[in-house]
Design brief:
Layout (H helix, E strand, L loop, with lengths): L5 E7 L2 H6 L13 E8 L7 E7 L1 E2 L9 E12 L2 E5 L2 H9 L2 H12 L9 E6 L31 H12 L4 E6 L23 H17 L6 E3 L17 H18 L6 E8 L3 H9 L2 H4 L2 E7 L11 H10 L4 E6 L13 H16 L2 E8 L1 E3 L15 E3 L6 E3 L1 H10 L7 E7 L5 E6 L4 E7 L6 E7 L2 E7 L3 E6 L1
Parallel strand pairs: 1-22, 5-20, 6-7, 6-13, 7-8, 8-9, 9-10, 10-11, 11-12, 12-13, 14-15
Antiparallel strand pairs: 1-19, 2-3, 2-22, 4-21, 5-17, 15-16, 17-18, 18-19, 20-21
Length: 484
């Protein structure tokens, strides 16, 4: 099993510092700065816990024997959007079973920057998905005119949780929505489950459905920032699913969905295409974005991580290739979770490490935002109406009423708690292949550097900015955040 260590570094840049960094000697005046260290570590009680303070010293030329991470805040790349998770039917139903005190604890754990990890990006499902207690739509079966459209189902659990979450996040909150399948009568297999395709005669009706959904939610005072066209459009699943080839998704977007949203006054909604794994992302992006009439409606390309995790190849290079081909479009991680729930593995450290590796590589390759899957599941990894039980960063045990925090929660938190909306991705590289690293410059002038060590050994390395550096000791399988 590969082991992982992540270091997060936050550095404040004043206007005076900005002037100093331009000087001939590159003296960053870092020697007097106190760096506060926060640590999460396996086999320790440390969970984003303050563990020490460090100071910079001079290091004009590192030696080959020194392990270094080099950060250059002058080299800026994509703008950070946010990190968060999905409020599904399952999450909302489990939340409703918690005590008022535990509900408040969960809201603060996710959505408070001070008491929790500061999520700001939310995703939700348009009618049912696998993480619903059963299949449902917002219309009566066969109602192509959508005259029966109603979101009454969502008002019981999902809408109240979304409102509470967005209120705690505040003005930085962004919510986007994804469908898993059109209603059964609109598909060639007459079934919301097991794949099938949207019948051409219902393209316009289905496009109208998105507009109805957005308007219904916004009538509930829930602003919809954006949407994806179809969750996993190349996966025939035992749950809600629908297949679109790249050409079919392109044509549905440019001929129906894009024009319909514009006509309904919803042209400002951010449309994300693909919403599936990294493996086929370049073919999907090329097919859609090389068509100017389709591309004009596209805000970004979304992706998941499920393609070949067991084999260790997460296809991060494909994300970089899309970023190079279409630098004017955004890359958004739209879903990831640890599959095959087993309560014995609540505290399996590699589950958290999987998040760290993916987030670092995705951000390094141009990703602007990162969305986990369910924010909350029960002690069985559900509810899920087709028994596709999975892990969440936090589980609510409906028998004991307790919340169970997994390593994934803390790994995500070492990013989401410290990187702010509007931050700029900056240059960050390691001198040894044992380390992975990514860095951001926050709008308030703080620098956040993440370093990941996938070895089982404690490592000492030097964090270097120009001719200043500080030495950090990293516990095995740990995440650290350094802030000043």
């Amino acid at each position: 099993m590969k082991k992982t260590i992540i270091i997060l570094l936050s550095i404040g840049f004043s206007s005076a510092f900005a002037q100093q960094k331009k000087s001939a000697n590159n003296n960053f005046s870092l020697n007097q700065k106190t760096v506060t260290v926060f640590t999460t570590a396996e086999n320790e009680s440390l969970r984003i816990t303050q563990t020490g303070q460090l100071k910079f010293s001079d290091l004009k030329q590192p030696l080959e024997s020194q392990v270094c991470v080099f950060v250059n805040p002058n080299k800026k790349f994509q703008t950070f959007l946010g990190i968060g998770g999905a409020i599904t039917d399952a999450s909302a139903e489990v939340f409703a079973k918690l005590s008022k005190a535990k509900q408040q604890e969960l809201l603060e754990a996710y959505f408070s920057k001070d008491k929790g990890i500061g999520y700001s990006l939310l995703r939700t499902n348009i009618h049912s998905c696998d993480f619903s207690s059963g299949s449902y739509t917002y219309i009566k079966e066969g109602d192509a005119a959508l005259t029966s459209f109603s979101i009454e189902h969502d008002q019981a659990f999902k809408i109240p949780l979304i409102k509470k979450s967005m209120k705690m996040i505040g003005e930085k909150a962004l919510l986007y929505a994804s469908p898993w399948s059109p209603p059964a009568f609109m598909k060639d297999n007459n079934n919301m489950l097991r794949g099938g395709k949207l019948l051409p005669q219902y393209y316009q009706s289905w496009a109208n459905y998105y507009a109805k959904f957005i308007k219904a939610y916004e009538k509930e005072s829930i602003p919809i920032w954006g949407l994806t066209i179809q969750n996993e459009p190349m996966a025939t699943q035992t749950w809600e699913s629908c297949i679109y080839t790249a050409a079919e998704e392109r044509d549905f977007l440019k001929n129906y969905l894009g024009p319909t949203l514009k006509k309904e006054g919803l042209g400002d909604k951010k449309i994300t295409v693909w919403d599936h794994n990294r493996d086929l992302i370049t073919q999907r992006a090329t097919t859609i974005l090389d068509d100017p009439e389709a591309s004009k409606y596209v805000w970004g390309v979304g992706f998941h991580w499920y393609e070949n995790w067991s084999g260790g190849d997460q296809m991060f290079g494909n994300i970089a290739e899309v970023n190079k081909m279409y630098p004017d479009k955004n890359l958004l991680f739209t879903e990831g979770c640890v599959e095959k729930f087993n309560a014995a593995n609540y505290q399996l450290w590699s589950n958290g490490e999987r998040y760290g590796r993916s987030m670092i590589n995705d951000f390094n390759n141009g990703t602007v935002g990162w969305t986990d899957w369910n924010i909350l599941l029960d002690e069985n990894g559900g509810p899920n109406h087709v028994a596709n039980f999975c892990f969440a960063p936090i589980h609510g045990d409906t028998q004991t009423g307790e919340l169970i925090y997994t390593p994934s929660y803390y790994y995500i938190g070492h990013f989401s708690k410290f990187i702010d909306k509007g931050a700029k991705k900056i240059s960050s590289v390691a001198s040894r292949s044992q380390l992975l690293t990514t860095s951001f410059l926050n709008p308030d002038g703080k620098l956040v550097t993440i370093v990941m060590n996938p070895t089982a050994k404690k490592i000492n390395y030097w964090l270097c900015i120009a001719e200043k550096a500080l030495e950090v000791e990293i516990l095995p399988h740990a995440i650290q955040t350094l802030v000043y």
